[in-house]
Amino acid sequence: DRYAALVAAHQSVSGDKIIIDCGTAITIDALKHTGEHLGGLIAPGVMLMCKSLCQQTANLSFNQNSTSPVLLANSTEEAIYSGSAFVASYGLEAVITEMQARLDQATVILTGGGVQHMRGLDSLASHIRPNLVLEGLEIMASCNTTHSG
C-alpha cells in the first residue's frame, strides 16, 4: 500500500510530498520531488487503537458506530473513540510540522478509509485523495502492461 501510494503521489503531484494514509495503520512517508523516498512512520489507526484498548482492558466494550469525536466525552465508548481520534490527529499534526521543516515546501497528501476519523488535518492537507493506493496500483499495472508485450 505504501509503495503504491508513493508511486501515485510522485506521478500526480510535483515537489516534495508528505503522504499520509489513514487506515488500519496510519503511515506517514516523505517523498522528495526526485522520487526519493526519505522514509516514514507507521502507527496504529484510530479504530485499531480503540479495538486494542478494549481487547487489552477488562470490561470495556466499543461500538464502531462512533461518528465524531468530542473533547469532553460522556461515556466510556465515546471517550475511547474520541481519545484515539484526537491523539492520532494531533500526533499527525506534529509529525507533519517536523517533516515540513526538513523538506522544501512539502505538499501534504491525505488518503485512506480512516480519514473521516481525523480532526484538523483538512487545513494542513493540500490534497485529499481517498483512492491514492488504487491510483498507484493502476499506474504500476499500466507500466507492466506496456513493458510486457
Summary, kept brief:
This protein is of the alpha/beta class and 149 residues long. Helix content is 44%, strand content 19%. It contains 4 helices and 5 strands.
Radius of gyration from CA coordinates:
17 Å
Number of helices: 4
User: For the largest beta sheet, what order do the strands appear in spatially?
Assistant: 3-2-1-4-5
Number of DSSP strand runs: 5
Task: Kindly estimate the percentage of residues that lie in beta strands according to DSSP.
Answer: 15-25%
Structural class: alpha/beta
- H/E series, N to C? HEEEHHEEH
Q: Mind summarizing the main beta sheet?
A: 5 strands, mixed
Helix percent reads 40-55%
Cα distance, first to last residue?
A: 26 Å
The unreliable regions are none
Coarse shape: elongated
Quote the average pLDDT: 87
